[in-house]
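Blinded run. Sample ID left blank on purpose so nobody reads anything into the name before looking at the predicted structure. Input follows.
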Amino acid sequence: MALHQKEGVNPIGGVSGCLPIFAQMPILIAFYDVLLGRLGYVRDQVYAGSGPAWAWRGRGPAFSIGLHRAASKQAHDRGAPGFHHLAFHVGSRTEVDAMHLHLRAAGARILDAPAEYDYTPGYYALFIADPDGLKLELVHEPRLEAAGSPTPL
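Blinded prediction complete.
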């Protein structure tokens, strides 16, 4: 994984999504630095020694994402009740395409390359997985621009 070479972390965490999060923490931190840094989030603190947090302080409400060590070794299951995926809205299709190139070059696991989906008119998205298998989406949705909704970029 090219990400471990750039960020200087142990590549073993990228070998299997079944490794517990405590073994993958350096890989997860490097992954989210690449993803969230590109989206304008800033890594700004550590929660009780467990893991870092990234904060968005641009237009719109403040928002943060934090990593914590797992209390269980059970792998994440998108089909079970709970978290399915997290979508990051960006300002254009060009930004979705640029993130695809950026993340692919960093060694991220691409689930679905950028494409148009029929969720709403013009919905254009990229789907990726973080090193623990959490599904993430980068999407441009024109209807949000028409409604005046802020986008991070």
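Unblinding after everyone has recorded impressions. The chain has a mean pLDDT of 77.
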